[in-house]
Known about the structure:
The structure holds 2 protein chains of 2 kinds. Chain A is mostly helical. Chain A has 14 helices and 2 strands.
Amino acid sequence: MSTSAKRQLPLWEMALVVAILxxxxxxxxxxPYYLSVDQLFGSTRAFIIPGLLALGLAVVVSLGEIxxxxxxxxxxxxxxxxxxxxxxxxxxxxxxxxxxIGALCGAFNGLLVAKWRLPSLAVTLGTMGAFRxxxxxxxxxxxxxxxxxxxxxxxxDYVFGGVVPVSLIxxxxxxxxxxxxxxxxxxxxxxxxxxxxxxxxxxxxxxxxGVKIRAYALAGALAGAAALVWVGQYGSARGxxxxxxxxxxVTAVVLxxxxxxxxxxxLSGVVLALFLLGTIRNGLGLANVGGPTxxxxxxxxxxxxxLRPAAAAxxxxxxxxxxxxxxRAQGE
Amino acid sequence: MPTVAAEPVIPAPIxxxxxxxxxxxxxxxxxxxxxxxxxxxxxGLVGENGAGKSTLVKIITGLEEADEGEVILxxxxxxxxxxxxxxxxxIAAVYQDPKLFPHLSIAExxxxxxxxxxxxxxxxxxxxxxxxxxxxxxxxxxxxxKRTVAGLSVAEHQFVEIARALSSDVxxxxxxxxxxALTPTEAxxxxxxxxxxxxxxTAIILITHRLEEIEAMCDDVTVLRDRRHVATLPRAExxxxxxxxxxxxxxxxxxxxxxxxxxxxEDVLRVEHLSLDGVFDDVSFSVRAGEIVGxxxxxxxxxxxxxxxxxxxxxxxxxxxxxxxxEVAPQSPKQMLARGLAYLPEDRDRDGLIMPETITxxxxxPILDSLSHWTVVDRAGERRLAESASQTYRVLTPSVETIVSxxxxxxxxxxxxxxxxxxxxxxxxxxxxxHGIDIGSKAQVHAxxxxxxxRGLAVLLISSDLPELLAMSDRILVIAExxxxxxxxxDEATQESVMMAAARQRGGKR
Lengths: 332, 510
């Protein structure tokens, strides 16, 4: 890996911005209402829930791990919220409880992965099923819809002249927080160091187990927050909530430039990728493209995201004259 | 080169090595090695770690190609490109870590590469099993050929390996440290097999660290040192002391200037009866402030394991560690770093540094907390620290933002030093600190270590480089087979005495 590895990412982020603008331009040709402020802000609601998951997943992926159980944690969260609502617990108390339940689910994943060193894909595939099963058992067959309006506010209301969704503000705060955590604090630095070389990080005094458990707990807590938004958006809680949304989440993280093997990537890339995917999905919806086709597009983008580092390296090799390669060999 | 031996008739050599030379890039791996191997005799091949023994074996068996010289087998110059080709010509090797397929049966492993075929090209299992049983019987083993290899002991692995080697007509059998993992009883059984092969006229090359084995087994001995051929002699003409002298007998290089008399203070690191089950046992020593304690021994003796246990990588199963008068139970590197112990790992590129990261990020990783205000890393302060550390330890780099993998081995090692010393330890363990770095950086590392000790740091220096160990250490501990077997004061230690202690074989169990 050369010193240019660091310079690659801003370039990628630029490419994402260009892609967002292109997707937006294409969408605006589909509908005259596309470019209205209402529509633009409103469309962001479509990716707030997977977006919150993607922020947490980005932290987990920076460690070289994965968590595909996050969508199931949403279901645990919504069902828990429905129980609290039914019990008449005020939202201000219920909301932190749901976030804490999400964090606990995440910490359980983290414990299995970090403490017992089990492969994270297998662990979270298992808990993906287990958490959703729990949500089905705890929740009712038909789903719970008797939420008080206060419970719905976070996911359904708008502020600033009724234009900006409250959930978008929640997402912006969460994104800024996770960005700060990963790119400014010692914790973030430790995450990336584990992703690059867990042995060397351990030798350097990094508490690898603790860092991993906290990362999974954070991802779980954000899934809990996403559950609050879910209830607000859909007004219902059932065991199948957010089923199948993990593809979008993983795609956003990978397309955003997080190296799936860990150690590299930026949160700004992940946020940009979310906007890109949101725009594409919104556009496909406007163009009346069906769900299955949308899934094909998402899957294709995920593969493209995974191929990105290899493609970038190949392009660099082709476009760089031999001279620079010699310079690099001398230690740049 | 061969001189007259004690025995009346000397058979004509079957394998002749003539002026073998080999380089890996700019590194000279072997230079001008010539000797003869005769049928019906055991030829010992000895030398320190890195003397070139393994490279030589690889050349003979076709794993590596020689750049210069010839291998002559039964009168014809040969040049094998693969071990299978060598085996077809009657040369087979058994390595110290057996290379078998764990999930296949013994019979399948023995037949590997030459399955007997039955109808329609299917494997004739019955023939395969019978042949395997026959070969096992020849090495005196009654193992069931249908068993899978995975459950076998190390000694049983060795027997399967030898049986496999014998499955073709072997004229030259090479054994690379075959007893390093065996108990004395198992070793004796193995040697009984070797003797019977010898008596049937097979030429045997035995690589070993153990001087007892040379005395007990060998008819001829070849000594390699610093990748060169030093001598080939009939075993009867060399005693143990002479052998050791031949193996280590280089002059102390001027590079290893000895330290001035140090001022030595209180115990900083004290280790009492430290054990790790199955790895090392009942190790006690102490390192005082300002003192460099050397730790010598053969590769695999357990030195790195002792160091890593002290550093909390693999917690001990028994014993006490006292750091600056306070008892500590090592649990993790994080905890030991906080207590003031730092460890420079042997495998710098794997454990010591994060290669794709910048110099700055590597140096500050263990001390991020002290560089942070309210968990936020002070990036300017971090860069200042990295810059001053790079200067202190003379890292040659255009910038501290350079990726570590772009640096030379010597410069990487200096970054590693900077990293561990930034933790401001009271005791420092160095595991092969000059392994694989150029001679200039080596001298700088030595000067640095001496300076650190002079400033009052307690240093434990693990090194397989005897001249380095002798020159740097105020005291030398020798580890053999997981036990502390000798301790030498600075003035009593010689290369011979340390080597002798390191190569001694314990009679006991392991």
